[in-house]
């Protein structure tokens, strides 16, 4: 039966595991919860699942009891944990909390070995310590200021037989790390915190704090006053943790907090920078339409620092080559034409390569073949000047001039008119264009004696001195960019990849890629 969800929660949110931004180790990333199966196994969850006449399974995420039933069911089914949460306190979502646990694993260098952590404001569910202890055998000091949350947290620890790993302590209001650790001499590996997001009731209701263009929240907002609100909101709350860390320093290897607002991230990083904290990193947690951000810092010089997600994306983008595909019919036509330019080996990659080499030569882009894998061909390119910019406009301008030539001209004006037809591109490309050929042919037929001997200026003669081509394009000192072009056969097509090596501007490589692709296709459409 296909799982579908309607109502307040969109399908994308329920199937949060399909979101590619979830942590790679999150068990729900590639295997979303099977609501039908869970409903058949857990009667308490089944009460909140409804099947419509069309066979769709629905769950009302605006109902706190339905949200609580889902959280308790997932913890029981996937982690063997039995917990109780009062409706008037914060009900956590399991996949989002798992993201935070896995990121802490990344911070402290793995899932193994006994580790010690602190959960600031553990909540009634005590979910971070329960997950950390169950999954990794971590020891936790879990602090709580709210009486109801404290009592439920202790009960949840005890009924899961984890009291040896998790110590829940009641602390005074506004207590963060200093007071909780004043009698401790243990060095902790990390601390975690899900701070109160809001500064007041209006902000908690989204007044003046939520972009009007954003869709409304998909699920109900539960939580006690101390869980969702604090003086100054999450920004001041985390700043207080930073100030505690400046006194504790190496008592913890990593300090971390989860943020509900992206706008809180930059000022907190600025604060850490002002205080001279040596190691700082951040990440994103994503669950459907819900986004959270996490910040971590350390005073240790030897801790590995995971790369922030933005840097990872930039690196992935930098590594990703520009590609285009020469389809099988186009490859076949290029193979047919290859002998006309002296190519005896008409294999698919060789045919595409020799035509690319001809285009590059015409464009005065330095290139040479380099060793590569079997059934592939590679060219190393060095672009010294931008000879491909606006080639299409230049070609159209030349054709327009040709079409506007008068049918008869005095001999004295023939040379002047022809000077305006100086090509901006290599003559091989222009002669390949039927429109240009027809225009030129008509002109020569009309004036066989007057204009036949008028010399055409070459682009080099008209504009600048020719580029001296060094024997090795890899050794050129001044250049726009260098790249590697790789050609390989995939399903009878030839895939062309352009890998950035170095240079001034990657947009120039993008322009050249488009020019090469269009020139190849023009060659097939308008063979010489």
UniProtKB/TrEMBL annotation:
<dbReference type="GO" id="GO:0120048">
    <property type="term" value="F:U6 snRNA (adenine-(43)-N(6))-methyltransferase activity"/>
</dbReference>
<dbReference type="GO" id="GO:0070475">
    <property type="term" value="P:rRNA base methylation"/>
</dbReference>
<keyword id="KW-0489">Methyltransferase</keyword>
<comment type="similarity">
    <text>Belongs to the methyltransferase superfamily. METTL16/RlmF family.</text>
</comment>
<dbReference type="GO" id="GO:0005634">
    <property type="term" value="C:nucleus"/>
</dbReference>
<feature type="compositionally biased region" description="Basic and acidic residues">
    <location>
        <begin position="438"/>
        <end position="452"/>
    </location>
</feature>
<feature type="binding site">
    <location>
        <position position="144"/>
    </location>
    <ligand>
        <name>S-adenosyl-L-methionine</name>
    </ligand>
</feature>
<dbReference type="GO" id="GO:0003723">
    <property type="term" value="F:RNA binding"/>
</dbReference>
<dbReference type="InterPro" id="IPR010286">
    <property type="entry name" value="METTL16/RlmF"/>
</dbReference>
<dbReference type="GO" id="GO:0001734">
    <property type="term" value="F:mRNA m(6)A methyltransferase activity"/>
</dbReference>
<keyword id="KW-0732">Signal</keyword>
<protein>
    <recommendedName>
        <fullName>U6 small nuclear RNA (adenine-(43)-N(6))-methyltransferase</fullName>
        <ecNumber>2.1.1.-</ecNumber>
    </recommendedName>
</protein>
<comment type="function">
    <text>RNA N6-methyltransferase that methylates adenosine residues at the N(6) position of a subset of RNAs and is involved in S-adenosyl-L-methionine homeostasis by regulating expression of MAT2A transcripts. Able to N6-methylate a subset of mRNAs and U6 small nuclear RNAs (U6 snRNAs). In contrast to the METTL3-METTL14 heterodimer, only able to methylate a limited number of RNAs: requires both a 5'UACAGAGAA-3' nonamer sequence and a specific RNA structure.</text>
</comment>
<dbReference type="GO" id="GO:0006397">
    <property type="term" value="P:mRNA processing"/>
</dbReference>
<feature type="binding site">
    <location>
        <position position="194"/>
    </location>
    <ligand>
        <name>S-adenosyl-L-methionine</name>
    </ligand>
</feature>
<feature type="region of interest" description="Disordered">
    <location>
        <begin position="395"/>
        <end position="473"/>
    </location>
</feature>
<dbReference type="GO" id="GO:0051254">
    <property type="term" value="P:positive regulation of RNA metabolic process"/>
</dbReference>
<dbReference type="GO" id="GO:0043488">
    <property type="term" value="P:regulation of mRNA stability"/>
</dbReference>
<feature type="binding site">
    <location>
        <position position="121"/>
    </location>
    <ligand>
        <name>S-adenosyl-L-methionine</name>
    </ligand>
</feature>
<keyword id="KW-0539">Nucleus</keyword>
<feature type="binding site">
    <location>
        <position position="97"/>
    </location>
    <ligand>
        <name>S-adenosyl-L-methionine</name>
    </ligand>
</feature>
<keyword id="KW-0808">Transferase</keyword>
<keyword id="KW-0963">Cytoplasm</keyword>
<keyword id="KW-0949">S-adenosyl-L-methionine</keyword>
<dbReference type="InterPro" id="IPR029063">
    <property type="entry name" value="SAM-dependent_MTases_sf"/>
</dbReference>
<feature type="compositionally biased region" description="Polar residues">
    <location>
        <begin position="459"/>
        <end position="473"/>
    </location>
</feature>
<feature type="compositionally biased region" description="Polar residues">
    <location>
        <begin position="428"/>
        <end position="437"/>
    </location>
</feature>
<dbReference type="GO" id="GO:0005737">
    <property type="term" value="C:cytoplasm"/>
</dbReference>
<feature type="compositionally biased region" description="Polar residues">
    <location>
        <begin position="410"/>
        <end position="419"/>
    </location>
</feature>
<dbReference type="GO" id="GO:0009896">
    <property type="term" value="P:positive regulation of catabolic process"/>
</dbReference>
<dbReference type="InterPro" id="IPR017182">
    <property type="entry name" value="METTL16/PsiM"/>
</dbReference>
<keyword id="KW-0694">RNA-binding</keyword>
<dbReference type="Pfam" id="PF05971">
    <property type="entry name" value="Methyltransf_10"/>
</dbReference>
<feature type="signal peptide">
    <location>
        <begin position="1"/>
        <end position="17"/>
    </location>
</feature>
